[in-house]
Amino acid sequence: MTKIREVVVASDPTNHDALVCRVGGSHFTVGGPDGVGRISSGPNPYDLLSASLAACTAMSIRFQARRQRLPLERLEVSVSFRHGALGERDSFARTLVLEGELDAHQRALLLEAANLCPVGKILGIGAAINTRLDATASGHSPSTQASYEDDLAQLPIPNITPD
Fold this sequence. Notes:
Blueprint: E1 8-12, E2 18-23, E3 26-30, E4 32-33, E5 39-40, H1 45-67, E6 72-82, E7 90-100, H2 104-115, H3 118-123, E8 127-133, H4 148-154
Parallel strand pairs: 7-8
Antiparallel strand pairs: 1-2, 2-3, 4-5, 6-7
Protein name: OsmC family protein
Organism: Bradyrhizobium barranii
């Protein structure tokens, strides 16, 4: 029997019709246009895609490190999303910070584990995923982060405009 995963997103009439996502016992607001000209707080769908890729990558790396008994002390995965220009594929940039007494071969094994992440395989069908190792923490500037409106503006969907 095939198992399914279900995530429910529904409007919440008790919270100005904000979209709320339910995953198991967790609930959180989904950000983005609210239909009346405001932007709801919370991660937007592109943030959630990036978070899924980062989480799956981290789990894959951690699993491989434990399985191989590698001296990985801490890991950090940061993911950013970029819409491709007209005719180009969308892409994810994934940066890995691997801390611990790891040699070059061990780092290569963990990079390979990152690239075998199941969510990455699914997303890689429609988007490029570029991964690099970095010795330092991310440090992306909030001022350079794309908004959901930026994401929507990149989509070539006729007759649909963001709220």
